[in-house]
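Lab notebook, bench 4. The sequencing result for the construct came back, and we need a structural model before the next group meeting so we can plan mutations. Quick request posted to the team channel:

Model the 3D structure of this chain.
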Amino acid sequence: MAIAALVVATAPDGTGRLAYVLGAVGALALAGFRSAPRAVLAVTTLGIASYVVLAEPGTSAALPVVGAVHTAARAGHRVHGAVAAALFLTVFAFAGDGGLNATLLLAGWFLCAVITGLADQNWQAYLRQTEQRALDAERTREEVALRRAGEERLRIARELHDSLTHSIAVVKLQAGVAVHLARKRGDEVPPALLAIQEASGEAMRELRATLVVLREPGPVGRVEEVVERARAAGLSVTLTDHDGDLPDELRHTAYRIVQEALTNAARHAGAAPVRVRLGVDDGQLEVCVEDDGRAVPADGFAPGIGLTGMRERVESLDGTLECGPKETGGFAVRARLPLGVREPASAAADSAAADRHPDHHPIPDHHPIPAPTPEPR
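Done. Here's the predicted structure in token form:
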């Protein structure tokens, strides 16, 4: 609009209405330079050339064509821009007001318009290449991080196998030999020895499963399974489960929370009933494990490694965890996990959690172990 006003304002005296219209149309056509640069170039060149023939204006009439040539070169149509500039210069040389000097001046303007258009095009291409290189570098960093996470999982798997498997196997073997000799002599096998044999066997199976997960991500554990194991160990557990589909990361985290909470209940709540509930509310998965055991708020409690690891696992998914004695007696664990979880490397997270909390033990299927003296959960 500014260029059109300049063209109309500098029109010579006696300019006809048709010339004004052609000049204004040729200048206003520049508004569409982003969507149709070649069409704008054609309309502007023809309109302003016709305006020059009818009104014989000065060099200011060439400004719309200079702008159209620049935008055409910027869009990659430098040949079309050069042809349009040559056509307009030819018309201006014969019909314009200014003679040879003005024509040469306009030739310099058009040359600058083509050069600056090409420079702008190259700059835009450079910016796109820079952005693409940044995206490629980010993708490469993610691939390197995933590869390093896989290498770390393998290292942890080897360390666990070399350091723990042998020791647990020796404990299981010695317990089995002691049970065999006691039965051979006709003596009564101590319940603690049977519990050690069963717990060591369960620890071996759990360790093998952990090593498989570290080396290659395996299936996600089900809450129903850990609840059944707790019932087999002598706990009175009721389960209210969520029947909808959940992301694997959420299902695995809920499984670990329930597993740790039931382990604590077996150690501290005695034979008190335990309630496990999974539900979805307000876009979040709620995992609640409550028991009616001996814990009271006045006693207080010190979070142990198990609860600390549970909190770290929940916070890694941007969730919240509340745990402690209830006002009415007993202990409660409540976790809220957003359903829109990130997509972390779950196997790496599992291995890191296992590495942080090596003292975690699953609840055995049989031979419940008597509750020890109270200790930090």
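The longest strand covers residues 274-281.
Will bring this to the meeting.
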